[in-house]
Amino acid sequence: MSETAAAMRAEFTKLRGVRGTFGALLLFAPVSLLIGALGGWSARNAIESDNPLLRSDFTPEQAGLDGVLYGQLALIVFAVLLVSTEYSSGMMRVSLMAVPRRGRLYLAKTAVTAAAALAVAVPVTVLGYLLTQSALGPHSAGIDASGVPRALAGSVVYLTLMSLFAAGVASAARGAVVPLAVMLPMVLAGSQILSTIGATKEMVRYLPDRAGMRMLTVGSDDALTGFLVLLAWTVAALAFGFLRHRRWDG
């Protein structure tokens, strides 16, 4: 087994052994699926009762992806904890004794972050869409509807890149408090609020979460642009995180 593979195996072992980190990863599925099902059920009732509160741009295709947008909060927490816990606990010294080459250790951590996020994102995205459509009943749309397969694939890529972005920010901060205090409110509501303000509306389009969401938009003509913007943010965060990791002296 190569040293990089051994380092990745060790990181997977740490992931399973730290309850908070592993719990955050597991939480992604129930949060996404529950919100998807409730959203579908609520929309069905609104449609059938001609409720004016149903948003004007509602489509069953897009509703099938709403759940993972809330579930991503769990993935962000997972990625931040996976990277930051060893800094705050002092265990980073032990890890560096086992894997002295800092680049290899950083690569192992980011690779495990991406692999774990991808492993849960694929089934949860598909199942969440199907569950939402089931709750919508006669108002549902098939998984093969126009634009849906691309949006589902975009969702998986988005979730994986956002997890890596969070990991890079956590490494740069060398802790969990600042990344979580900034990223969770921003993803949950901050960027949405800023997008309604004239002075910041154009700028917000290039924030990582808002840009990346174009990948999840069914029928979007801007998906590639959104991917490139989010990719640029992710690469920058990982690069800065690595520089901070390389200079860490405990």
UniProtKB/TrEMBL annotation:
Keyword flag Membrane: yes
Residues that span the membrane, as ranges: 21-43, 63-84, 105-131, 151-170, 177-199, 223-243
Cross-referenced Pfam families: ABC2_membrane_4 (PF12730)
Annotated source species: Kitasatospora putterlickiae
Keyword Electron transport: no
Full protein name: ABC transporter permease subunit
Top-level taxon of the source organism: Bacteria
UniProt entry keywords in alphabetical sequence: Membrane, Transmembrane, Transmembrane helix
